[in-house]
Write a sequence for this structure.
């Protein structure tokens, strides 16, 4: 089992930046990739970005490409999401998750954190 804890969310004005962290513990050798997802009120959970844990593969949703950067520090068992040029439509609860493959699909991810709220004011 892998435990995930997100942090770094908050309230920021449009155009601002935030850096989210996802700390993993437990069976951290057991997953192949990690991803960020987000869920706004009344909407389905959607893919944001994913990274192969040992590097080499990164995928972004079109809506965040060029503004968000995903990275991972395997020595610290931590994944990051640097979010720049934030927009009000980025407002959501952001979740991290692990998977046995690199995927954009929610159903491919097995372990989930509890999420961290990001609110972008206009």
């Amino acid at each position: 089992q892998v435990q995930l804890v997100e942090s770094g969310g908050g309230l920021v004005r449009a155009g601002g930046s935030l850096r989210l962290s996802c700390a993993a513990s437990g069976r951290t050798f057991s997953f192949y990739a990690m991803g960020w997802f987000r869920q706004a009120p009344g909407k389905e959970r959607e893919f944001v970005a994913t990274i192969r844990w040992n590097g080499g593969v990164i995928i972004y949703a079109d809506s965040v490409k060029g503004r968000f950067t995903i990275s991972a520090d395997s020595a610290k068992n931590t994944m990051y999401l640097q979010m720049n040029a934030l927009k009000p439509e980025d407002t959501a609860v952001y979740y991290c998750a692990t998977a046995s493959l690199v995927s954009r699909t929610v159903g491919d991810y097995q372990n989930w954190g509890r999420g961290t709220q990001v609110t972008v004011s206009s």
About this structure: The chain has a mean pLDDT of 95. The first strand starts at residue 2 and ends at 7.
